[in-house]
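User: Could you go from structure to sequence for me? I need the amino acid at each position, not a summary. Structure tokens:
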């Protein structure tokens, strides 16, 4: 049995390090931040998603909205381009419903109209130079 020489192990380590460094060089993701209001008030709790539109590169990114604010770090952000934005927020109604499998559960409804999520009309242009700060003023009616 032949053991690898120290010089082979050293070159292997250098090669792996170079691969790791170069793999990170193509990451030109942008940070995202902003505010979300519903009927003039900060959205208490929700989620926001940025989905690339045709001609823009992925990935899809997003995060939590808390007290009307959201922040997506560059590492988890998106590449520059045009994005469809979806905003979701739900609340309990105070009623109990029966699930399809027969269990009792709290009834939950969306507090955001579908024109801001499943049928979203919201868009955002993310630029390489930023800052990519967005304000979304939503209306429940």
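Assistant: Here is the amino acid at each position, in order:
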């Amino acid at each position: 049995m032949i053991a690898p020489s120290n010089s082979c192990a050293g070159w292997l380590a250098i090669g792996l390090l170079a691969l790791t460094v170069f793999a990170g060089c193509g990451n030109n993701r942008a940070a995202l931040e902003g505010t979300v209001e519903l009927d003039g008030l900060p959205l208490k709790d929700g989620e926001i998603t940025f989905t690339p539109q045709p001609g823009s590169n992925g990935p899809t990114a997003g995060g939590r909205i808390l007290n009307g604010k959201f922040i997506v770090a560059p590492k988890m952000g998106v590449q520059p381009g045009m994005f469809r934005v979806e905003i979701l927020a739900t609340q309990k109604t105070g009623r109990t419903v029966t699930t399809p499998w027969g269990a009792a559960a709290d009834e939950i409804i969306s507090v955001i109209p579908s024109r801001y999520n499943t049928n979203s009309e919201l868009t955002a242009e993310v630029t390489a130079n930023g800052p990519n700060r967005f304000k979304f003023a939503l209306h429940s009616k």
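One structural detail worth keeping in mind: The first strand starts at residue 32 and ends at 38.
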